[in-house]
Amino acid sequence: MGAGKTTIGRQLARRLGRPFFDSDHEIVERTGVPIPTIFEIEGEDGFRRREAQTIFELTSVSGIVMATGGGVVLDPENRRRLRATGWVVYLNVPPLMLYQRTRHDRNRPLLQVEDPLARLESLHEARDPLYRESAHLVVEGGQLVASGVVQYLIREFDQLCLEM
Ligand SMILES: Nc1ncnc2c1ncn2[C@@H]1O[C@H](COP(=O)(O)OP(=O)(O)O)[C@@H](O)[C@H]1O
Ligand SMILES: O=C(O)C1=C[C@@H](OP(=O)(O)O)[C@@H](O)[C@H](O)C1
User: Fold this and answer.
1) Residues 6+ apart with CB under 8 A from 18
2) ipTM
3) Which helix (H) or strand (E) holds 22?
4) Beta bridge partners of residue 138, listed in sequence order
5) Smallest Cα–Cα separation from 107: which of 69, 135, 163, 61?
6) I want to staple 5 with a disulfide (CB 3.0 to 4.6 A). Which of 21, 67, 71, 78 is the partner?
7) pLDDT of amino acid 160
8) How many Cα neighbours within 13 Å face the side chain of 71?
9) Residue 22: which of 85, 61, 67, 65 has the closest Cα?
10) Is the CB of 146 under 6 A from ligand 1?
11) 158 Cβ partners below 8 Å, 6+ apart?
12) What count of other Cβ atoms lies within 10 Å of the Cβ of residue 8?
């Protein structure tokens, strides 16, 4: 959630010369409406069904870089497919930094509450074990600029390819 997945994923894809997909963007393209509207009409459950379908389709394509919405890990089948078909990176950013990066954005329905920082803290606590279970690599802290994270991921990815 607001951890820089899209920013970092897009730069990484460009550097690797691979296509980039953002699962939220795919859902918006397919439905033709923004995410808050999907939540309003179909509720979170409806959004999660569309999200699972999109993850199913995108994990069937090889050679891409994908950024996912922060809630994809709630579904065990999403976690299983992501881990089985790709190299999964968890960008772990503390809740306060997530708050600073997302506070002006009205496009995240789960954060449209009186105390978004408290919501981010509880989401982070509940989801952190699920992200760790899904990820092959965890990048801690959120201190690096996006290009620094991309540089680090390219080195790790090259190493992985050499070992295979
Ligand atoms: N490494 C970073 N350092 C500082 N700000 C960042 C970093 N990565 C992303 N941001 C900023 O945080 C906000 C959310 O980033 P985004 O990539 O859209 O997040 P996500 O796709 O995870 O929701 C953007 O304003 C972006 O410029
Ligand atoms: O954390 C979540 O459950 C969600 C995060 C959002 O994506 P970001 O991770 O880009 O905010 C988006 O998929 C939807 O609003 C639900």
Assistant:
1) 63, 64, 65
2) 0.95
3) strand 20-22
4) 90
5) 69
6) 67
7) 84
8) 17
9) 67
10) yes
11) none
12) 24
Interval between CA 156 and ligand 2 midpoint (Å): 26
Separation of alpha carbons 129 and 8, rounded Å? 22
The pair of structure tokens assigned to 38 is 């999907």
Which residue type, as a one-letter code, is found at position 164?
Answer: M
pLDDT digits (tens, 9 = 90+) for 20-55: 999 999 999 999 999 999 999 999 999 999 999 999
Q: H or E segment at 92?
A: strand 89-92
What fold characterizes domain 5-163? Answer: Rossmann fold (3.40.50)
Tell me the sheet residues that pair with 15.
none
pTM of the model: 0.96
HSE-CB of 122 using CA atoms within 13 angstroms:
7
- Which amino acid residue places its CA nearest to atom 4 of ligand 1? 145
